């Protein structure tokens, strides 16, 4: 797991672990970056299912209650199958764009 900070956004990148191992490590480290916008970059995973990302839904909900964004990056899933509580985009740039749009909405009180 690689954790990097870009402004008010933390990017957490999965490198070599399985999704189950990654979720366990992510959960253990979540408190250290929960007050930031979070991008979970799963682009390097070849085998990913919707069930594999469902555990992130609770982190997403937690982030949104504190007015932060939580975005998962992967192009391996059918976007029609993704639970409504998760924001999933196919590229890192789209994750940054989504966060920027959500920050504007929060600033406007929407």
The tally of beta strands, per DSSP, is: 5
CATH topology: Transcription Regulator spoIIAA
Strand percent estimate: 15-25%
Helical residue percent?
25-40%
Structural class: alpha/beta
Q: How is this fold's topology laid out?
A:
Elements (H helix, E strand, L loop, with lengths): L1 E5 L2 E5 L5 H11 L7 E5 L8 H4 L3 H9 L4 E4 L13 E3 L2 H17 L2
Parallel strand pairs: 2-3, 3-4, 4-5
Antiparallel strand pairs: 1-2
Notes on the protein architecture:
The protein is α/β, with parallel strands linked by helices. It has helices spanning 19-29, 50-53, 57-65, 92-108, and strands at 2-6, 9-13, 37-41, 70-73, 87-89. It has a 5-stranded mixed sheet with strand order 1-2-3-4-5. Helix 1 (19-29) links the parallel strand 2 (9-13) and strand 3 (37-41). It is globular. The termini are far apart.
Q: Concise description?
A:
With 110 residues, the protein is an alpha/beta fold.
């Amino acid at each position: 797991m690689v954790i990097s900070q870009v402004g008010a956004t933390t990017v957490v990148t999965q490198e070599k672990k399985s999704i189950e191992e990654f979720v366990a490590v992510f959960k253990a480290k979540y408190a250290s970056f929960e007050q930031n916008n979070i991008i979970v970059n799963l682009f390097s995973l070849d085998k990913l299912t919707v069930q594999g990302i469902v555990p992130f839904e609770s982190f997403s909900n937690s982030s949104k209650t504190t007015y932060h964004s939580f975005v998962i990056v992967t192009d391996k899933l059918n976007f029609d199958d993704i639970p409504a509580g998760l924001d999933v985009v196919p590229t890192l740039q789209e994750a940054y764009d989504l966060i920027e749009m959500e920050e504007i909405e929060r600033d406007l009180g929407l």
